[in-house]
Design brief:
Shape: globular
Strand content: under 5%
Number of helices: 6
Oligomer: single chain
Helix content: 55-70%
Order of helices and strands: HHHHHH
Length: about 120
Amino acid sequence: MGVGGGVGGGGGLQSSSLDTAGVAQRIREILSSHNIGQRLFARHVLGLSQGTVSELLSKPKHWDKLTEKGRESYRRMHAWACDDANIRALKAYAPKKGTDRLRRTRVNKRREFSQRM
């Protein structure tokens, strides 16, 4: 997996339940305050698609209603959120604002212009 969040043996989280709504809220707050996108978080921390993570964060199910795979996702999110080093590491993966996107936009505009000629 990518950045932090490895729960390994579980450290006691395997058998205890988590407040999934609380975990989801905390992750949303962290992502928002650090300007980290869900796609980046999904890929590098959970190894899931952005759509799946969006669903986990916006509609958290009660712990008892989750499959083991669903529970593991919340365990990873919880473990990741508990360590500031994980947040800093993920921020390092984030593209700098506007750099890559701006370059791609310019290239695409040039192509569109040359195709019109």
